[in-house]
Structures are given as structure tokens and as C-alpha cells.
Amino acid sequence: MKRISILAFSTAITAVLAGGASGDELEKICALGAEEPQLVVYTVALPARNDEFFAAFKAKYPNITVQHLRMTSGQTATRYASERAAGVVNADVVYIADAIFIEEGERQGWFAKFDKQELPALNNVDDKFFQNGVGLAGIQLAGIMYNTDIVGQDGIQSWEDLLKPELKGQIALANPRTVPSNMAVYRILHEEYGDEFFERLLAQEPAILDSVTPGTQQVAAGGLAIALPGAEAGMASLRDEGAPIGWIAPEPATGYEYIAVISEGSDSPNAARCLYNFMFTDEGQRIYTGSNGISTTGADGTMPMPERYVSPDIAKMTDDERDNIARLLNIQ
């Protein structure tokens, strides 16, 4: 493992706490970060977003060396927890869409605690999106992918449109047990529409897939009419290539909430804070959240928050609630 620059980190933070972070104080933190070991980031962002984000960070802070490792949220959580259990702190920054992992990490003391005032970009973040070093860095809405040749450009406008008779046998649902945020989508639909909605949805004879990805590909190819739930970013490349695929996130809306934390015991604490701050700047938000995501700082070029947005609150779901959703979908 790398050696921690405790004195340099303490000096930088003491200066910040004296009166809140300024641009000059941030530059001092980033300059100290350039003297630290390579910064390691675990991220679940799409590869193209990672490439653009880390290139932009490198252009702004060329003396900070960064290695990023892209994994799914499940892989990230498993790897990070295993490393912590072994007494290893490999990732300095984690960007993940898994509130259950974050809650466990807070209980275990895995993440550094700090206030918004310590980094200037966090001044733009509402208090409800940042607490004690845990920041909601962006939201990708969970929506419905549909084949425009089969259902038309505007053929899907609401969740209830999934119940149209002509869509029987033409729908793929992602198994909620494999992606925690998907469980929340179904929970919110149950809260809105009740058992009858799920009875009618099951009567549509949907395919239950471990991931929405193959369903999205089948929708693009015309093998299915509908796949859900999924983020627009997951189908954008297919649409850009000319596939007849559309996406909509009806209300009530929820989404995949991407959370950023810094590891307690990081051996590059100043570099980690430098990158964390960049993530919440307008530039960082435009890149990492994108035009099809919601910025928690309200950055230009990102999606507005839906009026009826419901937080997935994954960590608050009970086993009984999860089992009930699985029962409603006839999943063992």
C-alpha cells in the first residue's frame, strides 16, 4: 500500500476549516495531491463517460495521476468490502449506485467524513444531497425502452401503457433481485397502482431477464416491443446508431442514484478531494451526469428533476417488501 501524507492533508484541511473552502485553498489541496501516490477510483459510470471525465480532470490537474477501474455496482461493492475485510484500502474514491453498500460502509467507518464547506463545488449541492462526506453526484432515471416501429414514436406515455393488449408477449422485465434500484422501481409502481397492476402485467406474459441489457438489445432489433426498467444512457448508443428505439421515464419517476465517497484511510487524501470537488463542478456534472441524467447541482445541459420524483430509498426496503415484489412478479 501507499504511504499516507498525514501532515500535508492535515495542513490543507486546517486551512479550509478556518473559513470555508476558496479557490486558492482548493488549489493548495490539489497541489498537495500531486505529491501523493496514484489516485485509484472505483466507478460504475459508462466507459465513454469515464474516458471524458478523467481526460478533463487530467487536463485541469496534469500532475495528479489517476487510475480508474470500471465495474458494476455489485462488483464494486463486493470487491471493496472484501478489501476492507482484509485491511486493504485500494480505492481512494468510489462512485456507485448502491445505497445499501453506502449505508454498510458508513456503519463500518469505511468513508471519510467531511463538511460541504471543505470543497467549493459542494456549495452548489443542496443539503439533502450531501451529508458527512456522502454525496449524491447524479441520477439516471429508470424508464421504459420501446421499439418505435412496433409501438410508434409516442406509443408509450405512462406505466399503464404496459398493459395494452397488443403488447402481450412483447415485454421484458429486469429481475429486481439482481439490481437493487430496480426493486425500488417495482415498489413505487406497487405503491401507485396496487396489486391489480401487477396481476395485469403478469397477464402480459413478460420475460424476466437477469439484466435489462439483453432486453434492450432485443427491443432495438425488433424482437421485443418493450424492456424495463433502464436508464436512457443504456440505450443511447443503439439509438445513435439508427436503431428504432425510444425511451421514456413516466411519473411517478425514480432512478439510479449515483453516490460518491472518499475512503477513510486513503493514501491520497488530497488528490481524492481534488477529484471529488471536480466531480461536483459544472464541467464534471455535465460529463459524468450527461444530458440524459439529473445533476444534483443543477448544472446546465442536464435533465431537470421530474415533479413527481420518488427517491428509491433502497436501503430502507425490508426483506418482506422485497419478497412481496418478487411474489407479485412470480419470481422465486
What does the secondary structure layout of this molecule look like, with pairings?
Layout: H1 6-17, H2 23-33, E1 39-43, H3 47-60, E2 66-70, H4 73-85, E3 93-96, H5 99-108, E4 130-131, E5 134-141, E6 143-147, H6 148-151, E7 171-174, H7 180-193, H8 195-202, E8 207-209, H9 212-221, E9 226-230, H10 236-240, E10 245-248, E11 255-262, H11 269-279, H12 282-288, H13 319-328
Parallel strand pairs: 1-2, 1-3, 7-8, 7-9
Antiparallel strand pairs: 3-11, 4-5, 5-11, 6-9, 6-10
Helix pairs in contact: 1-2, 2-11, 3-12
Count the E strands: 11
Mean pLDDT metric: 92
Enumerate how many helices there are, as a single number: 13
Gyration radius (Cα, Å) is 21 Å
Helix-strand string: HHEHEHEHEEEHEHHEHEHEEHHH
Instruction: State the name of the first-level CATH class of the largest domain.
Output: Alpha Beta
Q: Can you tell me the CATH topology of the largest domain?
A: D-Maltodextrin-Binding Protein, domain 2
What is the straight-line distance between the termini? 43 Å
Record the strand order, biggest sheet.
2-1-3-11-5-4
Helix content: 25-40%
CATH superfamily membership of the largest domain: Periplasmic binding protein-like II
Approximate strand percentage: 15-25%
The biggest beta sheet is recorded as: 6 strands, mixed
How many domains, as an integer?
A: 2
